[in-house]
């Protein structure tokens, strides 16, 4: 049986080359069902990036793509993390367009919260989603880390799991785009994470109540000082005025007013609410919405690097990230191809 073009039981390892990517960077494409046979839907590959030449950090980036999108669409962010010494995972998870539209017009003030929590852990809470425990975000992260630890033990993937088998969330930088931004914020809401970065989201604004979703302003396990947001001023899906209200509900307003990254350099006046008005690299109905993090529409700098690399660094990779002292720095293995 073939899944997403990759034979079951085989990881595709690619030694990357090109602009800003050296011989030491390796990409693994992992079929979710190969990590857990109970995972039976949303089966396209997880993307895993690691750079063994970089000084290894004791933190992990997990990125959640937006509705209907795949982890392969945000490789630039993952590769940038790897070059910082942060191993990175683009997670395939249940991300059909099943949260924002139904909850936007729902009279249930906890609609967004219940749907996101069900997608996160698979516990039945919501009438608008149907996600099993096996297909949940949490199970997919756990099973992928266990798989990577078995297949590549020298990389130290096991350090991101606690002794009881749960995710070591305090070592995780969680990021997400659009719908994925809402899930990233929810993970940070219920778990203390190292950092949370939300791109073009969360989109949790209720048209019925004309206000951000209630859960956003409730006490969070992760302090607001560890949370950054980045959006496009002309986003047609999540208007900037709604996004500012959402970010303020999360507590980001205490660090200053929204700032344009087009006009200021890092640290952008200390603001945690960042915007751009830059033209996307390609056109499309939602190009502005996607341009803050998706490869195909993220604008390039003169040297070919992502124009928003400095923004991503501020959001995701703070000074003082701990090093991982036990990892052996070595060349990657030979390139593997599917049989």
Radius of gyration over C-alpha positions, nearest whole angstrom: 19 Å
Strand order of the largest sheet: 3-4-5-7-6-8-9-12-14-13
Tally of extended strands?
Answer: 14
Strand content: 15-25%
Low-pLDDT ranges: 1-11, 13-22, 332-339
Order of helices and strands: EEEEHEEHEHHHEHEEEEHEEHH
| Content-based structural category | alpha/beta
Count of helix runs: 9
Largest sheet: 10 strands, mixed
- Report the principal-axis shape: globular
Helix content: 10-25%
Mean pLDDT: 90
N-to-C terminal Cα separation, in Å?
A: 12 Å
Task: Write a concise keyword list for the protein shown above.
single chain; 339 residues; alpha/beta; ten-stranded mixed beta sheet; two-stranded antiparallel ribbon; 16% strand; disordered N terminus
What do these coordinates show?
The chain has 339 residues and is an alpha/beta fold. Helix content is 23%, strand content 16%. It has helices spanning 32-35, 75-83, 100-104, 111-121, 137-151, 179-190, 240-249, 287-290, 309-316; strands spanning 2-3, 6-7, 12-15, 25-30, 46-51, 60-64, 88-90, 172-177, 195-199, 205-206, 211-212, 227-232, 259-260, 273-276. The strands form three sheets. Strands 3-4-5-7-6-8-9-12-14-13 form a ten-stranded mixed β-sheet, sandwiched between helices. Strands 1-2 form a two-stranded antiparallel ribbon. A two-stranded antiparallel sheet has the order 10-11. Helix 4 (111-121) crosses helix 6 (179-190). It is globular and about 50 Å long. The two termini are 12 Å apart.
């Amino acid at each position: 049986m073939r899944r997403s073009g990759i034979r079951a039981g085989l990881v595709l390892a690619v030694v990357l080359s090109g602009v800003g990517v050296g011989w030491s960077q390796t990409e693994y494409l992992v079929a979710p069902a190969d990590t857990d046979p109970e995972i039976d839907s949303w089966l396209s590959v997880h993307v895993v990036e690691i750079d063994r030449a970089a000084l290894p950090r004791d933190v992990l980036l997990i990125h959640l793509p937006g509705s209907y999108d795949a982890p392969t669409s945000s490789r630039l962010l993952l590769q940038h993390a790897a070059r910082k010494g942060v191993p990175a995972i683009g997670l395939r998870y249940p991300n059909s367009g099943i949260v924002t539209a139904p909850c936007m017009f729902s009279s249930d003030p906890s609609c967004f919260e219940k749907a996101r929590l069900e997608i996160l852990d698979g516990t039945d809470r919501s009438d608008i989603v149907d996600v099993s425990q096996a297909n949940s975000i949490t199970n997919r992260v756990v099973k992928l880390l266990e798989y990577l630890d078995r297949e590549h033990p020298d990389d130290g993937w096991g350090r991101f799991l606690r002794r009881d088998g749960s995710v070591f969330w305090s070592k995780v930088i969680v990021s997400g785009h659009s719908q994925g931004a809402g899930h990233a914020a929810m993970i940070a809401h219920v778990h203390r994470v190292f950092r949370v970065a939300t791109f073009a989201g969360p989109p949790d604004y209720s048209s019925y109540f004309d206000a951000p979703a209630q859960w956003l302003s409730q006490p969070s396990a992760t302090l607001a000082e560890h949370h950054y947001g980045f959006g496009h001023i002309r986003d047609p899906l999540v208007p900037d005025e709604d996004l500012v209200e959402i970010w303020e509900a999360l507590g980001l307003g205490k660090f200053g007013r929204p700032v344009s990254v087009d006009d200021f350099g890092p640290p952008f006046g200390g603001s945690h609410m960042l915007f751009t008005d830059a033209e996307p690299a390609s056109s499309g109905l939602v190009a502005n919405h996607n341009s803050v993090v998706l490869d195909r529409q993220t604008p390039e700098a003169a040297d070919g690097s992502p124009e928003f690399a400095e923004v991503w660094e501020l959001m995701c990779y703070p000074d003082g990230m701990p090093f991982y002292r036990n990892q052996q720095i070595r060349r990657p293995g030979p390139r593997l191809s599917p049989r």
